[in-house]
Design brief:
By secondary structure, the protein is mainly alpha-helical. It has one domain. Helices cover about 70% and strands about 0% of the residues. A hairpin with a 5-residue loop joins strand 1 (about 10) and strand 2.
């Protein structure tokens, strides 16, 4: 979510060549839009509002609930674009400043709003208001859940993973100048144990492989032809992993210790994500055409703001539906009504946030930082 749309030229096209510049930007931008739309659909389904039985139980319910794992797919996007961003940065500090000014303005505003909402609504249960206030600095720095403090904005957990990934990349960048290739190995080795607890972060790995053009011919062929199928299959397999893990109270990497078919689910998920990211980056096939539609490209532009603002809009719309008696009157139509009423304010807030916080505030921060740097260089 926090990645930029800067050019990189590391993803193969279906013919075996390389895509770069605007072509790759369009594919990545459209993927952001698609994955963000999928997350919105998931939050509608997970709203616990009355709905037809077909979407609350059975195969359709399973498929719709699997859309929640679109968040993990954003990690793959970051794996692709952040490697290019790091290569273009003049230093590790400059890279982290660029990432911080991109992420923090929207995060700070939405976290403060959620703090007020949580205190007013007594959420999360069992967490006193003073504990939330004490956790505010850590939340403003996108630290939980990697750092175990209460999470204020429920959607911001993924940004903690993003920043941990940025720190690993920046550390490797800085140490490379001192130690050569071993400089990358040290931060990676230090971060590896975190994957046992925060296993969704594994999805950075296939994205990084695509960014480094570690794509053998067979994988390139599969990505060019089956990326849409890989997307559907990834959601199904990964959701199966998550459900089994939750039922049996297992860490996700514990699947590797099973002596039956379940041990294959984790590597299969990573393989499917890898094929998806290859096809997504190259813009091949049906998925590529979907990603380059105007709707997906526009959604991609506002996707980061949309990700952080839509839970706020949905919370107020849902409260209004209950307070006004619409839920009691509409019955199983409540969920479709919720979708129709929550989408417009979510889009409007995201559009305004993107223009003001992501563009104007970010550019202002970067200009202010550029002046002292220019003065120091003279």
């Amino acid at each position: 979510m926090g990645g930029n749309t800067a050019q990189i030229s590391s993803a193969p096209d279906p013919a075996g060549g390389m895509l770069s510049g605007h072509a790759l930007n369009a594919n990545i931008q459209g993927a952001r839009g698609l994955f963000c739309a999928m997350i919105f659909f998931y939050h509608v389904i997970n709203s616990a509002l009355p709905a037809p039985a077909a979407v609350t139980v059975g195969p359709l319910h399973f498929a719709l609930m699997s859309l929640s794992h679109s968040v993990e797919l954003f990690f793959g996007i970051s794996g692709i674009v952040i490697i290019g961003s790091l290569r273009r940065s003049r230093s590790a500090a400059a890279f982290l400043w660029n990432r911080s000014t991109r992420i923090f303005p929207v995060l700070w505003v939405t976290v403060v709003i959620f703090l007020a909402m949580n205190i007013a609504g007594g959420r999360p249960e069992g967490v006193p208001p003073m504990a939330l206030i004490a956790a505010l600095p850590a939340n403003l720095l996108a630290m939980p859940p990697v750092v175990p403090v209460p999470l204020i904005h429920p959607a911001a957990w993924s940004l903690s993973y993003e920043f941990a990934f940025y720190l690993v990349c920046a550390s490797g960048f800085a140490l490379y100048a001192l130690m050569g290739r071993w400089g990358y190995a040290l931060p990676i080795a230090a971060a590896a144990p975190l994957l046992w607890i925060h296993t969704p972060a594994l999805m950075f790995i296939p994205g990084v492989l695509v960014a480094l053009n570690a794509v053998p011919p067979l994988a390139r062929w599969a990505g060019a032809r089956f990326s849409l199928l890989a997307l559907v299959a990834f959601l199904a397999v990964w959701h199966t992993v998550i459900e089994i893990a939750a039922t049996k109270k297992l860490t996700l990497l514990a699947f590797l210790t099973f002596a039956d078919w379940r041990s294959l689910l984790m590597p299969l998920s990573l393989l499917l994500a890898y094929i998806l990211f290859i096809g997504m980056s190259s813009g091949a096939g049906v998925l590529g055409r979907i990603l380059r539609t105007p709707a997906m490209l526009w959604m991609g532009t506002i996707s980061y703001s949309f990700y952080l603002w839509h839970p706020i809009a949905m919370a107020f719309v849902k409260l209004g539906l209950y307070k006004s008696g619409v839920v009691a009157l509409a019955g199983n139509w409540s969920m479709p009504i919720f979708f129709a009423l929550a989408l417009p304010p979510s889009l409007a807030l995201a559009w305004a946030s993107q223009r003001v916080l992501e563009v104007r505030v970010t550019n202002w921060l970067r200009r202010r930082n550029a002046k002292p740097a220019a003065a120091a260089a003279t």
